[in-house]
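Supplementary Methods, section 5.1.

A reviewer requested that the exact input to the structure prediction be made available. We therefore reproduce it here, unchanged from the version used in the analyses.
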Amino acid sequence: MAYQVMSGRFVGRTEELARLRELLARAADGEAGVALVGGEAGVGKTRLADQLAATANEQDVRVLRGGCVPLGEEGLPFAPVTAALRGLAGKLDPAELEAVAGPARADLGRLLPDLAWGAEAAAAAAVGAGGAGASQGRLFELLLGVVERLAATAPLLLVMEDLHWADRSTRDLVAFLAVYLRSVRVLLLLGFRSDELHRLQPLRGLLGELARNRRVQRLELPRFTRAELAEQLAGLLGADPPARLVDDVHARSEGNPFFAEELVVASAGAGPGAPPPAEHLGLTPREAEVLALVAAGRSNRQIAHRLGLD
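The structure derived from this sequence is encoded token-by-token as follows.
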């Protein structure tokens, strides 16, 4: 039977979303907080952040988001922070940007030369990366000041995703903000893949440090139960799915929401513009399963284990 695959609705995560909304409310009242959201690839960390961001927007909380990129230990410094601050371009006029930058104008001009931080920042950007910038400790203090000035005008939800890819500078900045963001209207939301925390993963040290901070709360997103996956499939298909389909997708996806969605798209008639059914691609069911595993971000080791090849 062919189904028309639709955009999936948000499913489950009731307790986790309630906890995050509570932290957001506290932050809006001046009690800064840090929320760590872990879970395997495809389990729904970004969708949970989307839901919290929607709540924040409804409550006039400013939302800034950025993510780390997989460039290794020597990757792009401060990638989630620069991406988040770049989001201010369409929200603040040049005068407001300059006021938010404050004494950090010159260094922000080096980090983000494309934003109108002011004349001092423009001069610093012209000098380029070779110019003398602030020490790391001083830069952290300047960025803390930027966050505090933003929070002075409106509560702030600052989201940093894919922290398992963070370079050392970003990890050190997160540790600094977690300690020194106190009586300000800020919630720092940090997402990471817990299935990437191998023995030598540098993020493990930061997580251990954050665990000792009483203002940090950690949430771990589990895989979907069969009932939750059935609700997800109903949203994707626009109708209650047959029990056999739920059983099959739940067994093959092991409750991973993104993997389940990829399996449905790969095996169902998905409509115009969507990937064709697996049989139309000439794929065997096993090949379609491998494709869905790859799309879900599973590692080679995880794929081998799922297929019984380890």
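The chain has a mean pLDDT of 82. These observations are discussed further in the main text.
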